[in-house]
Every structure is written in C-alpha cells, then in structure tokens.
C-alpha cells in the first residue's frame, strides 16, 4: 500500500514538472499583454489611477478583512508550497495577508463563492507558477496571475468522452453508473452519492490530479469484522460486477472486497484481465465458486493481488463456496507482483506451485494458507525470491520433514507461519541464518523437535508461538536456545499446552523484553523465581496448570508495574503479599472478591479499588485485615450487606454501589472518622450502633431507603458533615444536633421531618451549608438564624414555613463579596449535593458548591415585605423566593447584589414597578417575576435586554406591566424620560435655591442662569435631532423589512428606536440604518443635524447615489438670518464639533446591496464621496497656501478638512426649522460641484 501511494505521488510530481515550462511561458506572454494594455491607457489617469486603484483595492480588502471566510489559520503556514481549496463553499474576499505565503507556487481556489477584488499583495508571491481562481480582477490591474493557464487542470476531458459541467468524463461516468445498475442492494448507502455529474467526487471513486481520469475504485465493505460477522451480511453490496468497468481505461486500483457481488454465476469475471493498467486488485471475501481465470495473467502491471476466501470460511453458513485452481502458470506473467494472497483457494491439483512463485522474484508477501497444499519440499536449484519478507503456509497438509522445505534459503524472511501443518522432525541449521525473522508461528505442529532449533542469533525475533505442539524437554534448556543478543526484542512467547518440565531458572535474561508470557498447562515444578518480578514490561503472565509451589511475595511483583493479567491457578502456590498500599482504581476489574483476598492482603493499610465493575459481596472475613485503615470501594456493583469491619478502620467509602439490607448492628470499627454509604439500597432504621462512632467526622447516608427517627443517642464532638438527604426519615428536627458545635454541613432535605425549626439552630454558628428542603417543617424561620454568619447555602424550600423573613440579614457575612474562604479552603471532599438554580437542578463537586452562594425559600407560606437588607448580601448568586405570599414592592436594593445569576420572585403578591436597578446585575442569566401584581414600564439595559428570549414567560401574570419586550405600549411612555428629567431638574433647582440663602444671592443667580442656558441648548439639540429623524430620515424607509417600525412620536428615541444610539448627553452618536429598504439617491443633508454622529451604517440598502442638490432649498430656508451662509465664516471654521467624517460614511455605505467592490474602491479613492474636484471647490474659507497644502495631502484630506471647517456648533436664536436649514447649508458649503450626484 505504501509503495502504491509512493508511485502515485511520483507520477503527480512528474505531471507538475511536465507542464511547468508551458505555464511559465504562458504567464510571461500574459504579463507582456497586460503591460501593453496599461501603457495604452489615458495619460492623465495612468499614474493616478494605478495608485488610486491599488489604494482602493487595499482599502476595500482591509475594510472587509474581519468578515472574510478564508481560513485564518493558514496565515501561520509560511512554508506552504501548494494550496488547493477548489470546489468548496468559501465566500467573500481573499485576505491581504495571502501575500505573506511567500513560498506558495500553486494556488487553486476555483469553484467557490469568492467575490471582491484580488488583493494586490498577491504580487508578492514571487514563486507562484499556477493560480486558478474565480474572482473579479477588474480593480486589480497589477494582478495578472488570476487567469493563468491551468498547470493542474481540475478534470479535463478524457479520451473518447466529453466533459460535463462538473469536469467528469462522460464515458467514465456512464461506465460507473452502469456498474451501479448491477448492484441490487446497497444497505450501507455506499453508492448514495453517485447521483451528480462530477463522478470524481463520488464515494469510492478517485481521479488523477494530473489527467482527470478515474484511476481508483474502492468499494471495500469496511463494516465487515470477523468478531462481528453479522456486519458482513448487513452492509455488503449485493449484485454483480458489470462489464462497464472496461471503459475505465486508466483504472489502476480496484477493491471490491468483502461484498456479495458474485452474481448468479458466482465466477470471477474474466474481463477483469483486460484492465491492463491495474496495479491493485482485491477481490477477497467475495463468495466466488469457480476456478480462478488465467486471464488475470494479462494484468502485467499488477503489484497487489488478493483472491483470498478466508472470510468465506468463517461465513460458511451463508456462503458455502470455495475457489479452485489447477494451474498457476499464469502468475509468472505478473513480473511486477509484490503481494499474493490466495488464502483458502483450493490448490490441491497444482503440481508446480513452488516453481511458479520462485519465478516471480518481485514477490514480497506470499499467503497460501489453507490451500490444501501437500508439499513444500520441491528442490529449487536457485532461490529467486530474494525480496520475500512474509510467507504464510499455515493450515496445509505437508506430510514431510520440516528440514526439507524450500524456504529455509530465503534469507530475507521476516514472517514465517507454519501453524496447523503436519511437518515433523528436527529443524535445520539454516533456521539460525534467517537473521531478519521477526515472527515464528509453529502452533500445533505436533511432531517437530523444537529443542533442536538454534535461535540464539535471531536478534530481531519478536514473537514465538509453539503452543499445543507437544514439545518435550527442560524449560531451562529451551530458554537457553532463545535469542541471546545484547538487545533482545522478544515480546511475546507462547509455550502453553506442551510437556515442558523442570524448574524455572533464576537467569531470565532472554525474557527481559517480554510483554506476554504464557507457560500454562505444562509440567513445570518448583518455586517461581523472584527474578520474575524484574520483567518490567509484562502485561500478561499465565503460569496456570503446572506443579509450581512455594510462596509468592511482593518481591515477585517488584517491577511488574504494567501487569494487567495474572493467572497462577492450578498450582500449589501460597500468596503472601507484604503490600501496605494497593491502588487498583479505574482498572476495569469486573470480577468478584476471591476467598483469599483478606488473607493475602492482610497487611494492607490502604486499599483503593474504586471505580471498577466489581460485583458480588464484600469478603466475609474483612475483620481479619487488622492493619487496614482506609478502604475505598466506591463506584462498583457490590451487593449484599456490610460485614463486621476491621477494628482499626478509619475511613470507609462504599458509596455508589448496590448494598442492601440494614446497617450492621455492630460496625466493629470504633475509630471510624469518615463513613460514606450514599447511593445504595440500604433499608431499615439507623441502628443504635451508630452512636458508638464517637470519632466520626463525616457521615453520609444519603440516597438510601432508611426510615424512622435519627437516633437521639448520637453524640460526636468532631462531626463536621452530616448528610441524611433522600431517605424516608421522620420525626422532628433532630435534637441531638444542638451539641454539634463544629458542624459545617447539615443536609436533611427530601425526608419526612416535621415540626418547627428550633431556636437553638442559631447556636450552630459554624454552619456553612444548611439544607432542609422537601420536608414538612412549619412555623416561622427563627430570627437566631442570622447568628450563623458564615452561612453560604440556605435551603428551606418546599416546606410549610410561614411568617416574615427575619431582620438583620446583613449579619450573614458569608453571603457577601467580602466573605473569607470556606473552612475547607480549596480542598473539599467530594460531596453528593445539588442546587436548584436557573430552573434546573445542577450538581456540583468539591469546593464549587461553596462558590454557588444560595438562598432558596421557595414553595412556602412566607408573608410580609422582602427586607431591603437583602441587598447587602452581594455575594449571593442564586435567590429564589417564589411560590410564597410576599407583598409590597420589590426592593431596589436587590440591584446591589452584583453577583446574582438567578433571581426568582414569581408566584407572590408583589406590586409596584420593577426597579430599574436590576439592570445593574451584569451576571444575571435567569429572571422570573411572573404572576405577581407588578405595574409600570419594564426596565431595560444590561442583562435585562437578553433574558426575555431565554424565558418568554418571565413577565406573565402581571397585567399592569408594559413596554418592551412585551407587545403593550405604556400610555405615558413618550414623555416619560423627559418628565423624569424635568422632575430631577426641579429638585436640583430647589436645592440650589435653598443653598443660595447661605452662600449669597449672586451664587443663586449664576447657578440659575448658566444651568437654564445649558439645559435649553441641550433641549434644542435633542428636539432638532428627534425632529430630523422623524421628518427627514424616516420617510426614506420603504418598510420592506420593518426593522424601524419603532420610530414613533410616543416613545423615547434613545431608548426604544431601533438603530439609534445616544451618548451620555442623549445626543445621537450612531445610526444603524442597514436593511432599512432605502433606495435611489440619498440627500446627504438629512444627516446635518447630528453634530455628534460617529457611526453611520447604510449597508444592505439599494442606494444608487448620494446627492447634495438640495443646497438651494437650504439657502432659501435661511430666510436671510445668516448673510454669510454661502461665504466664509471664521466661527464656523474654528468649530470643534465637526460633522460626520464622510470618508468613513462613504466606505460604509459602499457595502450596501447592489454595488460592486470596485465602485466602492473608486468612491473611497475620491475621499469618501467628495471627488477631487469637490475638494478643490471647498476652499471658500481658506487662503491659497492652505489650499495648496491640502492638495498635496490628497483629495481625502482636503475633503475631511472642508467638512470640519464648515460644520456649525450652535445656531443662536434661530427657530428649529431655520437651524436645521442653516446647518444643512453649512454642510453643502462646498460649492456647486457637490450638487452633482455621486454614483456608487
């Protein structure tokens, strides 16, 4: 396969070299033509147009760079030689950085959706000899490579056939479709893609990159697997091989293996011998039932031939067939053959098979297993198979001595398989000369004398298999005949089911590289040498079924760190392991604990076999493991009850198993400090024996089936975590908890506890997590709960608690952002806990649970108002007060809870407005205030603008709410913002008046004077901009998309109008008018009132021109108020508030629909919409020196300066209509040149 790929690669390189000279010559000619074309252009535009065109192309490419879809990671591939992205769906323009790929020689981008101009930087590709693109090169005159003749054409016409639109040969396409007609069943859909014109893109079809012809057809059934034979039947193609393949004249690779396409005759098609260009033919696994056609000998270029039927043998219940051959002489014509596989082909009638294969010196692999051959001892005067590396003659019936075989002189052999043959006798000395041998397989060759085989010099031998061969002899002598090289490579040694005797030697040097060692079912005796533990690479060791005795200690396992399988059964061994720490977690163990486990590992101090598949019950005699202090058996499938435990056990984790029955009446382990039994099936009551665990620190009995009350006798001065959740426990709040002063976590949730919460709960001052949800608690929440200052998780949800929330919530400093880290720091034992947040139940592990600061009091009967002090708890991330009876207003102090991510106040009796301070909650990702009595406008800003799309029901059940995102207008919405501003102004005014009596009357006078002037000026500007939006810009909208329907008199333009963005002083700074349906010519004067405008987006419209023809109307509207509108104005020239930068605006609008990028580039080159002639006419307020300087800086600079110089900052006492016209006239003060339409 590697050789085939290498040959194909060489042919491609030859193809490139053949056409390289032609491509370069054609490109040189095209370059000369382009130069002549440029030389004949207009003299007045030759220099400037070229510079402007390059600048325009660069600007256009630069402006669109962030949006291109060309793969950006290629920018780092500086050594790229060839780039082929043809026939894909890439779109938009090419990036400017493509010129950085300086070593690129071949560039193919055809058959895509690229647009825009070709970047001028492509001229930096000095080595580029071939470029095939589909772009518009009109604006990049310097780039001539775009239309270079193809060096590697996509798929040119094949001989004798036309070329379809997609580039596939019609003749070859029809041949493949005819083949498809011969397929009657395709359960895997292999041929589903054979339905469009380009057959080179069909599954399994490969075409030459050089000629475009079909050169490969690979339809192998890739689902077939000998371990899952049913796949063969379910996914195989069914039918016959069509003669149409003869029209694939250039076919080199044909693989139809493991399919059922034998046809009704079940014969190998003879016409395949006419595919003269074939180099690879694989028909293996097809259930043919006939002789092998000698016509295959015509395939003189064949390198690979596979006619094997080994799959059919395993699938005999479906295909009880077999190919045969009586003559193999046709093989000698295949002078280039390297691989021959005729496995399971009946060759019993062939008399000279040895001479045939010897006459094919190119052969590297010969596989003739199970071919019913009867001899391999023909005399060959000369061995021609000097390249032979692999020989498989297994499962044949050779009834002669092994020493007489012909292959011992094949010096290059690396693989020799003779298993299941009937060879016999001594091995020849020639075996020791096959120094390239890596695999020797003599399995079940019953009468060979392996003890005479000299293998000491086979230094490359990796696998030796002589199992079930009835070998007799001493094991020590046999080991001495193995390779004795300085760097042995023997990895696998299979000696099982023989008659080897003796004692294993202490010297095991030849075995030091072993990975697999199988000596089972022999007659070995004596002790197992401790040196066995030095075989550090062993993963599999089987010594079962021998007569070994003695003691196995930990010394035998000293270096066996990779051992996965150990079988010592069927011996008389005693295992005594002096291991104190055994960790076999995540080892994939699926067995039961053996009876000897407790005695063998009696010295263990720590045992970890967690996260496996161990089943069965725990060892009954665990009490005898006196040294065991830490036991981790969690996450297995252990069943049964808990036995009496070792007395010294300190930590035991049996969580996530299938333990059943009651807890033991006698734990036996009186010093337990950590007991975890959660997620089992333990039943019954908690026994009194739990009270004997005086040193317990962590007790987790959650997720079981326990019933009854928690024992009152339970007392522990050390317990820090108690988990009883998800059981069926009952009774009142356990009174024994009052004395547990160091309790950090208490979880009583999901039980049947009842009664009121005790007042002494506040004495548990160390508590950080308190969960009592899903119970039947009643009464009120004790005010003493605020004494638990370190609390970070409080959950009383789904009870019957009533009353008001306790005051002094600010005492819960653990719920503030200033709180100190949890008692456990960054290490917290794995906790079995979840949090109901964001309408989901989320599970957390380790220290993360302490970071999710939570208050959940939902589904109770709490009343009263929500305390304002709750806002001090700015570390809370999850606040849920839903399904209660809270009334009053939502406190605005909630806006101070900056860490809040989930807020649920639904199903209460809350009234009033939703406080606008909620917009300050930048982390808020879930909000629900539904089914209350809220009224007024819904606040906006921050996260509030995005939450509605995620939870559309968040405002349901509040009939008084209005405003976006609801489809309900507020009656006073239009003047709301102005009214509020007026109220704030009045308050400020009254405050100023009061202060004036203290600091003097003149301060009052100055304050009122300057404030009112600034206020009314600001109000005038706001009114002008709002009026301009409604009277001048909105009429431009056609309503085609309806994106700006929100522009109406009743709403605030800065808050609710789509596409309008205001600054801090509520002046319009951005207008996004994209997709507004604006069409035709647009008068630039409509944007004059917006003196603070920074962004203007007119993209995706149908604008055909920008005009300034209405300047005359502006002059008329001036009404004589400003006699110098048409002339120079020093005040105007010195203004520090220029209007919009039209060069930016023009570049933006050039992206609108219906225009080419070359037009955009032309417009940008003109200085953003004002051409050079316009710049020249804009000097009404400048001297000649200024004009000359601007001309030297270019037209864009002149235009920008002109705009800044003529923009007005204020309008004095003009009325709004006159002010707008006055600004408009200033905008247009460039002279008559600006009145002409600017075509875009």
UniProtKB/TrEMBL annotation:
GO terms for biological process: brassinosteroid mediated signaling pathway. Keywords: ATP-binding, Brassinosteroid signaling pathway, Cell membrane, Glycoprotein, Kinase, Leucine-rich repeat, Membrane, Nucleotide-binding, Repeat, Serine/threonine-protein kinase, Signal, Transferase, Transmembrane, Transmembrane helix. Its EC number is 2.7.11.1. SUPFAM superfamilies: L domain-like. PROSITE patterns: LRR. It catalyses: L-threonyl-[protein] + ATP = O-phospho-L-threonyl-[protein] + ADP + H(+); L-seryl-[protein] + ATP = O-phospho-L-seryl-[protein] + ADP + H(+). Residues 172-208, 1024-1062 form the Leucine-rich repeat-containing N-terminal plant-type domain. Belongs to the RLP family. This is non-specific serine/threonine protein kinase. It comes from Leersia perrieri. The lineage of its organism: Eukaryota, Viridiplantae, Streptophyta, Embryophyta, Tracheophyta.
